[in-house]
Design brief:
Number of helices: 17
Strand order of the largest sheet: 5-4-18-17-16-6-7
Shape: globular
Distance between the termini: 41 Å
Largest sheet: 7 strands, mixed
Helix content: 25-40%
Radius of gyration: 24 Å
Length: about 500
């Protein structure tokens, strides 16, 4: 029997539509869905990886339990694995308290409907303040900035790529990444279209990226200097022409304070600091402010740096003072069909909905944001914390921090020292090999999907449910069943 299932690719933020052909229980072909109104048949090579992931012989099909004496894993049935995991986590909590456990959620959780809904349930059930994720090594400064500016961590203004006449992009390479904090299938084509309709694309980046290669202009900048450039541009605009708030008049508070803070950041002074000519700074400012519509967008190069939160704020300040915030062709707030929890546009007043620093890490005293601590402190909270604060048990869900988080050698030592560890993951990798039990959920093509996270960050308002392309393997637990089974324990 041959079937074709139309769904989205869940291997990156673009949410491209795909057609998955299945014959006799095997995926035979993955193609772009030319009827998808968002991606219109476009896919990148990652989409073909959906088939490879389904067929990968290294993907785990059964739960594993590790023999601590030998380090060897053995396959077990689901009941034994769940019981063992629950007993181990419960023992740590009973002996040392809830904060003796830590959780780490990897990037794939944002692509999983089940993890988005039931992951927080599990975390709350464990009752620990030691919550970590990939966010603190990625986009967290942008979320902090947007929360203070607009009221919610996911109230992020998104560039209107399809209608803007001027795109200024810093620290991003969507030609390769496909867009991030900007759900946009065929980002390369959308950016190229700006030039084709007579607009301009300017890339600010320390290296000649693939995105810079298709831009009108590439401005080289030293890593970490983005905030200075943006603040100088804002200074130049406010000094030369003032703020043009358009429809935002009456909705903006604190502009006078912001302008006072910018006084020191003159183009002439900043030019000496960042080694970009004053004339270039002033020209970019004039072009951006003078364009019929303009959008400034920054990504991981602007958040993974010393001034990440300041740079994120400066990006939106530039959009705001030029009248390009919340207007067609500028940057706009998506209106997702579901999960408005992180998008606080419906709440009155500035900065409501988020509090930071409600607790701190025990060793360095770094504060939490959005309910989690920075992953940079995880190793020391296991190895260096006082006995009453020490992390002794770990739960990882779809994450590989020993490969992706800072200080991997130190994390290796820390994970080896844990008393008990559970991993919900489909692979035996650098991190999960330290687990006492590994619980593999079904692969993406055996699960339904709806992008609760990425439709909050989309360049177009869209809603698309994806049915499974294949039935779940006999006897396997679905991801929601795994997470809730651990939470019940």
């Amino acid at each position: 029997m041959k079937t074709t299932t139309h769904r989205v690719c869940t291997l990156c933020e673009a949410t491209c539509g795909i057609a998955v052909e299945v014959e006799d229980g095997q995926v035979t072909r993955v193609t772009g869905d030319r009827h998808d109104p968002f991606s219109r048949g476009y896919i990148c090579p990652k989409a073909y990886g959906m088939k490879a992931l389904q067929d990968d012989p290294d993907r785990l099909r059964s739960p594993l339990i590790r023999d601590r004496a030998t380090g060897e894993f053995r396959e077990v049935n689901w009941q034994e694995a769940i019981d063992y995991a629950v007993e181990g986590l419960s023992r740590i909590r009973a002996e040392h308290g809830g904060d003796a456990l830590a959780t780490y959620a990897g990037n794939p959780n944002a692509h999983s409907l089940h993890a988005m809904i039931y992951g927080p349930v599990l975390t709350k059930a464990l009752g620990t303040k030691h919550r970590y994720s990939a966010s603190s090594a990625d986009q967290l400064p942008k979320m902090v900035s947007c929360s203070l500016l607009f009221g919610g961590g996911l109230t992020v203004p998104i560039p209107d790529l399809d209608r803007t006449d001027y795109l200024l992009m810093l620290g991003a390479n969507p030609v390769v990444s496909g867009g991030s904090l900007m759900t946009a299938p065929d980002a390369k084509g959308r950016i190229a279209a700006i030039r084709e309709r007579g607009g301009k694309v300017v890339i600010v980046d320390p290296r000649r990226t693939e995105s810079a290669a298709i831009a009108d202009e590439h401005v080289f900048i030293r890593p970490g200097d983005d905030a200075f450039l943006l603040l100088a541009m804002c200074n130049a605009i406010l000094e030369s022409r003032g703020a043009e708030l358009r429809g935002l008049a009456g909705h903006v508070q604190g502009l006078e304070s912001a302008q006072a803070a910018l006084v020191a950041f003159t183009p002439e002074r900043v030019a000496r600091r960042i080694n970009i000519p004053r004339e270039t700074i002033e020209r970019l400012a004039a072009e951006f402010a003078g364009a019929s519509s303009a959008a400034c967008y920054g990504r991981i190069g602007t958040t993974c740096q010393t001034f990440g939160t300041l740079t994120s704020w400066a990006i939106d300040l530039l959009n705001l003072i030029t009248g390009n915030l919340d207007r067609p062709g500028g940057v706009m707030f998506p209106l997702p069909a579901a999960n408005r929890g992180g998008n606080k546009l419906d709440l009155p007043g500035p900065g409501r909905g988020s509090k930071f620093g409600r607790w701190k890490s025990s060793v360095r005293g770094l504060w939490e944001a959005f309910g989690e601590l920075p992953v940079a402190v995880l190793a020391e909270e296991i190895l260096d914390a006082a006995p009453e604060h020490k992390v002794r048990g770990m739960l990882t869900v779809a994450g590989n921090p020993l490969l992706s988080a800072p200080g991997s050698a130190r994390l290796e030592e820390a994970f080896a020292a844990l008393e008990f560890m559970v991993s919900v993951d489909i692979y035996l990798n650098e991190t999960t090999r330290h687990a006492d039990v590994i619980l593999p959920p079904p692969p993406p093509l055996e699960r339904e999907s709806y992008d609760l996270a990425f439709y909050q960050l989309s360049v177009r308002n869209i809603a698309k449910y994806s049915p499974p392309a294949l039935p779940r393997a006999d006897g396997a637990l679905d991801e929601w069943e795994i997470l809730l089974s651990l939470a019940k324990g």
